[in-house]
Amino acid sequence: MNSLSSPARLLGAAVSAPVFDFWSRQFGSIQAWDRCLARVVARQQESANAVSLTLQPNRRFGGFEPGQHVNLTAEVEGVRVTRSYSFTQPPRADGLLRLTIKQVEGGKLSTALCALRPGAVVELGEAYGEMNLPQGPGRYLFLAAGSGITPLMSLSLALEQNPQAEATLVYWAQQRAELCYAEELRQLAARLPRLRLHFVLTREPLRLAGELARRLDAGLLETLAPDLDALQVYACGPRGFVDQARLLAQGRALRFHGEAFTPPALAPGGGSVRVTLRASGRSLDVPSGVPLLAALEAQGLRPESGCRMGLCNTCACRLVEGVGQNLNNGETISEPGSELRICTSAARSDLTLDL
Amino acid sequence: MTQATTLNRPLSAAEMDAFGQELDALRSRTMAQVGAEDARYIRRVVAAVRYIEAAGRALLFFGAFPPAWVLGTLLLGLSKILENMELGHNVMHGQYDWMRDPQLNGKTYEWDIVATGDNWRHTHNYKHHTYTNVRGADDDIGYGLLRLFPEQRWRPFFLFQPIIAVIFALLFEWGVAIQRLELGKYFSGRKTKAQLAEEFRPLGRKMRRQIVKDYVVFPLLAGPFFLPVLLGNVVANIIRSLWTYTVIFCGHFTADAETFPKSVLLNETRGHWYLRQLRGSSNLSGSKLLHILTGNLSHQIEHHLYPDMPARRYAQVAPEVREICTRYGQNYNTGSMLKQFGQVVWRILRHALPSRPGVVTPLVQPVGEAA
Ligand code: FES
């Protein structure tokens, strides 16, 4: 019995992940079997409605690049809620992470996160996102609107470690009180002539020196970046803003990369939606509003199923993204990570399932 | 013998629909309340399981001292009962999926018992709950080993049933574990050896894990007290088996519980399905402690109507379910554990001998007959 030879393996046979995690937390540790937990070690009010949390992740954290995001999960009234946030600092020597949370009106998770105090524990997923700053020469135009500043903040800070890169950061907010990192950015720009900084305030009656008050248009772009064709443009913000930036820059700039935060659009019943099956790497079009199990089977797939009446949970699979609807009670399900019983659920938007 | 005929009246199609709608409405009203309180509850159950287990195992390390051995064994058995019933069974039904906690997820939870979660999800969540008490579709009727209903064909083998039932109870954990293998199919030649070996692989892994944990690692950790710890673990597992066997048999094999021919499944409506769940299940009345220790399967009826509702809510919906049953002229089968288990024992003894089915009230009122 080879498997019985080492004491560590013996112990491993006696303890399971939930048991290990339970006792670890009982003893005040954030180490976990296979999950990345992180402890809040500091909290800073960043603007009128945004807070930066400094986190100490456990050993399971896999690292990240400036400009990337991470799924953060916390429990709100017994239910785990997950949202994506950007790292707002490049990786630090002490391993601490900074995420900035903007409090969304009526937002369950953001409200709970903004109220977190040092000592609280949250869970992190794996870092993702392609908006990065390669080493070596490069000239960048960073366009940030609202909370779109977060990934661009860590990219701006990353300029310090990349002496051949230079950037112009244009940061839109409605009012001055909503600007995040205003002081930190000014100091950075003062230290780093390679970073040019413009704040744009669209609803502030009085402007201070250096502040602009103009929406993104061709004229403004011409003023700020006359050499657009030599620049790589990164835009981040609400969908409308990113679309506008793309319209102005794509095809003219050296490269355009946009990231927008938008809720998926609901498809009317009978319309067609795109269902992406992440585990099997397939993607297909199905009619919206019909049971997903039947729709997938109609296309020759054979997802696991049992009772076909929403009872036995055999067909349950995780919703990664998008909006589903429980056809038994009409409830819509849009929270990422929810279990969807596909025999009695329909797609109401493009969606991704862990199937 | 089939008293059941006088207890229930058949429902007309219209009544059946109304019956189903009332139960659906009760479900929606209750599910709308599910939230933070239920989350807190299941986390407390998790904590109770872990702490009681730790206390039990710690005491067993002093198992050379008899009172410590007795108490340690009882606590370990108690923790296993809680983990099996109120935690594992209910979580694996998906009752807590709305919390989105991967460690309380219905599809992935793995319990502290030799049966694999996956096999059990198939035999229990799917087959038993969809085809409750349908002969030939629900393998829980006698587990292919016992004859509990006169409708099951009698063979001389069943004369040994009283003894077999006791052995089965002691080893219930193992019986449930091999249920999915459907050994009957193998012995009758409908399944090849290779097929069986393939199906056994994940189960074998789980069995080995359980054996190594309870009968090797923890006894070894106790050093010189290897034997008392080993014995404590064996006894704790047997206590758990006896308890779950009792609770589960009381849930479907009492005197008035009915079984159904496969034909009921044809064009079964929602109301009809509810009615079948009701007539096939039986409850245990008792204290709050009894409900917790049975994983709320003391509310077997409510569990079968609403298998994915957090089980702690069954006590809340039970009075309403009962009231609905009364209005529709249906027996709400409940009684003390002593009474219900007495009926189970009687079934085991009675149907060891040849017996003939009595007349059973149909679920649906034949068309054209007045109510
Ligand atoms: S197949 Fe049973 S719940 Fe979907």
Describe this structure in words.
The complex is a heterodimer of chains A (355) and B (371). With 355 residues, chain A is of the alpha/beta class. Chain A has 3 domains: 16-128, Elongation Factor Tu (Ef-tu), domain 3 (Beta Barrel), CATH 2.40.30.10; 138-260, Rossmann fold (3-Layer(aba) Sandwich); 272-354, Beta-grasp domain (Ubiquitin-like (UB roll), Roll), CATH 3.10.20. Chain A is 20% helix and 33% strand. In chain A, the strands form 4 sheets. In chain A, strands 4-3-6-1-2-5 form a 6-stranded antiparallel sheet. In chain A, strand 1 (36-47) and strand 2 form a beta hairpin. The model of chain A has no long low-confidence stretch (mean pLDDT 91). Chain B is an all-alpha fold and 371 residues long. Chain B is built from 15 helices and 2 strands. Chain B has helices spanning 4-7, 13-31, 36-60, 66-92, 117-130, 161-170, 172-178, 183-187, 193-221, 226-252, 270-280, 288-293, 300-305, 314-327, 337-350, and strands spanning 283-284, 334-335. A two-stranded parallel ribbon of chain B has the order 1-2. In chain B, helix 2 packs antiparallel against helix 14 (314-327) and helix 9 packs across helix 10. The model of chain B has no long low-confidence stretch (mean pLDDT 94). Classes of the chains: A alpha/beta (355), B mainly alpha (371). Chains A and B meet through helix 1, helix 2 and strand 4 of A and helix 3, helix 5 and helix 9 of B. FE2/S2 (inorganic) cluster binds next to loops of chain A. FE2/S2 (inorganic) cluster (FES) is lined by residues 305-308, 310-315, 341, 343 of chain A.
